[in-house]
């Protein structure tokens, strides 16, 4: 599954720096009966440096607890297949990372493949935010610990904006005007990249979220409102209008995620719409000032789309649940949370005292925004694809590509979304 | 051994021979059963159930997956792309491969270097080829568009993998580039066994190049030609990796083939039963063609035609 797994990779790589996970053909416990060795499956992080961080983190856990973690790294795109197959065969890792939400961890929970954690939450007192806990709760049972809080927004090259005399866009009209100015300067306005498909879902998420607000998004997700309603058509039409106006690169569906980001890093594009997980990479790769804002609404500055990254789960057939629970408990400590913020620039899904933590201005802003998600003081939209079924996501990804390539109208795509609800 | 001599052999010897035969055949039988029959039986089973990858007791649906397959317009769209792939992706390497092999056949010095150069793409991993050609096709910084702009054909620069009408052919061109080297090397080997006296005699009799190729050379390399044709054709039905890497079937299913559609159904949408049914369709379509061409090749070999 392209989007969720991709996001899981990014999310986990940036949270505990142990992205999605996987191991092949290993019996629970890492293939041996040593109670002090557990296997932990991770998908390969985008940046090898993140894997080194993970290994160091696991070494620290071993030092503290005496439990050795047998880290298994597999290609991120195979995680879903490998996890399902191994868990179903009664094997697999003791602990693994996986996407949250009903289509992913929910499906594993429904099949009884993940270890129930409701009692563990009570025993260990894990202070996970309620909204985050809900995403790993199925049929009243908590089955995982959510990793990180993420937002989707628009990074922009503040240096270029200053040079061209462009103010921060406060509406889609402003953004369209900015696009024209930037395009006239010979720069690609927004580095839309949709070869992989899932990025299109992010665009729909942010445009729709800013358009209808969190309450409106809640209605779409919960089924209270139809996906072929005028707002969805309007959001898709806006995407088409931006494309027609030259706000995006030529043939954006021919550009993959990495190349799209590279357009922004290199200064060839002035804006990049993606998630907060890219803060670290963005700051690492650019030599200009970067700002991060919500995608504007038609009549206002808009809201961020926010939500959870992936989560960590225990195999239901693991014979080393005690050790596995210690690993999860380690992830939930204040020290580990602070380490995550400082080293991976990700935001744990539980309260962390950030006093004394060194963070860049951009990441500090992301931290503040995430705090508003956590304490419920901010209005945040949703990243649609982590909350909907695989069928719906496929229809959404194909649909956005079809709109961008003229293969379908916004109305047709909206109808397809509703048909695949 | 003739029937007469076999009947004259002592019973003990015949039994020993039979046992030896079984022992010799057994490894192949085991390997065939393990790696072909068992997976095939497994695939047939999964095509008859509605398996989501998780439920250990998937409900039996009989021919439901097959009926769904026939009624699914996406299957016909993918099959259409497979047919384009088979036609263009078979004809191009065969024709280009044969022509280049003919040229190299006459090269006296440096032939090995040419063979290595042409064969190199074939030994490269498909994933690597897909990634590199993806860069070449990149609409903003791709080499192809930069080249077109540099020679004044900037109007032709486009997003090769992002245009629904072009994307399949762009990927196909990559596959042809990668696969033609195989045809060249095999044809070249076959051409070394061609009776050059016949070719010279035809030339003296006034046959032009095309006539010599058609009437003298091609018949002599026909079994090899059919072998390459079979492999390329079957590859056209089962094509997956290069499309998966370069476009993943997009944009919006424009480059979807049976292989990528089966993958999506099985591993993205968790319709493993249906995905397996689609994979069986690939087998059902490709095996008869492979068998037919194989028989033709054997018949020609037995007739003494060919290299």
TrEMBL record, chain A:
Pfam families: SBP_bac_1. Residues 1-21 form the signal peptide. Coiled coil: none annotated. It comes from the Bacteria. SUPFAM superfamilies: Periplasmic binding protein-like II (SSF53850). Keywords: Signal. This is Extracellular solute-binding protein.
From TrEMBL, chain B:
It holds the Pfam family BPD_transp_1. It is found in: Cell membrane. Keywords: Cell membrane, Membrane, Transmembrane, Transmembrane helix, Transport. The keyword Ligase does not apply. Coiled coil: none annotated. Belongs to the binding-protein-dependent transport system permease family. This is Sugar ABC transporter permease. It comes from Antiquaquibacter soli.
């Amino acid at each position: 599954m392209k989007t969720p797994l991709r996001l899981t990779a990014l999310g986990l790589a940036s949270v505990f720096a142990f992205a999605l996970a996987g191991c092949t053909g290993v019996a629970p416990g890492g293939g041996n009966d040593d109670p002090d060795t557990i296997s932990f499956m991770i998908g390969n992080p985008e940046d090898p440096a993140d894997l080194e961080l993970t290994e160091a983190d696991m070494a620290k856990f071993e030092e503290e607890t005496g439990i050795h973690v047998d880290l298994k790294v597999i290609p991120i795109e195979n995680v879903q297949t490998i996890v399902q197959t191994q868990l179903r065969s009664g094997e697999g890792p003791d602990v693994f990372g996986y996407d949250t939400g009903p289509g992913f961890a929910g499906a594993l929970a429904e099949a009884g493949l993940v270890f129930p954690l409701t009692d563990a939450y009570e025993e260990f007192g894990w202070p996970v935010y309620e909204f985050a806990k809900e995403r790993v709760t199925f049929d009243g049972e908590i089955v995982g610990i959510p990793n990180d809080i993420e937002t989707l927004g628009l990074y922009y090259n503040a240096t270029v904006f200053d040079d061209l005399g462009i103010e921060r866009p406060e509406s889609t009209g402003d953004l369209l005007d900015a696009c024209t100015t930037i395009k006239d300067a010979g720069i690609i306005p927004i580095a839309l990249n949709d070869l992989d498909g899932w990025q299109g879902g992010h665009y729909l998420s942010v445009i729709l979220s800013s358009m209808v607000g969190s309450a409106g998004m809640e209605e779409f997700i919960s089924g209270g409102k139809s996906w072929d309603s005028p707002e969805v058509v309007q959001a898709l039409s806006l995407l088409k209008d931006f494309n027609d106006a030259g706000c995006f690169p030529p043939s954006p569906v021919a550009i993959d995620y990495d190349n799209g980001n590279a357009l922004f890093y290199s200064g060839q594009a002035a804006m990049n719409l993606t998630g907060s997980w890219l803060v670290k990479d963005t700051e690492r790769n650019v030599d200009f000032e970067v700002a991060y804002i919500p995608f504007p609404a038609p009549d206002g500055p808009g809201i961020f789309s926010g939500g959870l990254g992936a989560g960590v789960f225990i195999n239901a057939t693991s014979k080393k649940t005690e050790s596995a629970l210690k690993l999860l408990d380690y992830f939930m400590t204040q020290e580990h949370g602070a380490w995550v913020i400082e080293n991976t620039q990700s935001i744990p899904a539980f309260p962390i005292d950030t006093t004394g933590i060194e963070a860049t201005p951009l990441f500090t802003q992301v931290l503040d925004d995430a705090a508003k998600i956590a304490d419920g003081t901010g209005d945040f939209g949703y990243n649609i694809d982590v909350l909907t079924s695989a069928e719906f996501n496929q229809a959404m990804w194909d649909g956005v590509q079809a709109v961008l390539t003229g293969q379908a109208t916004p109305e047709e795509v909206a109808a397809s979304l509703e048909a695949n609800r | 051994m003739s029937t007469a001599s076999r009947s004259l052999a002592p019973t003990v010897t015949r039994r020993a021979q039979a046992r030896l035969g079984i022992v010799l055949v057994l490894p192949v039988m085991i390997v065939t059963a393990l790696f072909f029959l068992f997976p095939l039986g497994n695939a047939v089973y999964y095509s008859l159930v509605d398996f989501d990858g998780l439920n250990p007791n998937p409900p039996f649906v009989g021919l439901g997956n097959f009926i769904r397959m026939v009624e699914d317009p996406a299957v016909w769209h993918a099959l259409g792309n497979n047919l384009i792939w088979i036609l263009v992706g078979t004809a191009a390497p065969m024709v280009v491969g044969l022509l280049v092999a003919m040229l190299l056949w006459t090269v006296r010095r440096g032939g090995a270097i040419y063979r290595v150069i042409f064969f190199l793409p074939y030994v490269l991993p498909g994933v690597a080829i897909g990634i590199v050609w993806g860069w070449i096709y990149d609409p903003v910084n791709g080499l192809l568009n930069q080249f077109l702009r540099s020679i004044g054909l900037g109007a032709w620069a486009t997003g090769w993998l992002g245009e629904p009408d072009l994307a399949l052919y762009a990927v196909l061109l990559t596959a042809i580039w990668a696969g033609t080297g195989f045809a060249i090397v095999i044809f070249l080997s076959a051409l070394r066994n061609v009776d050059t006296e016949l070719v010279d005699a035809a030339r003296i009799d006034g046959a032009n190049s095309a006539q010599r190729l058609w009437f003298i050379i091609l018949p002599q390399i026909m079994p090899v030609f059919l072998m390459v044709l079979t492999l390329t054709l079957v590859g056209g039905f089962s094509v997956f990796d290069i499309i998966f890497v370069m476009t993943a079937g997009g944009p919006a299913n424009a480059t979807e083939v049976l292989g990528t559609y089966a993958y999506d159904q099985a591993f993205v949408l968790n319709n493993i039963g249906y995905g397996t049914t689609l994979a069986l369709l690939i087998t059902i379509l490709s095996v008869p063609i492979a068998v037919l061409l194989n028989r033709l090749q054997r018949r020609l070999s037995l007739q003494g035609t060919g290299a």
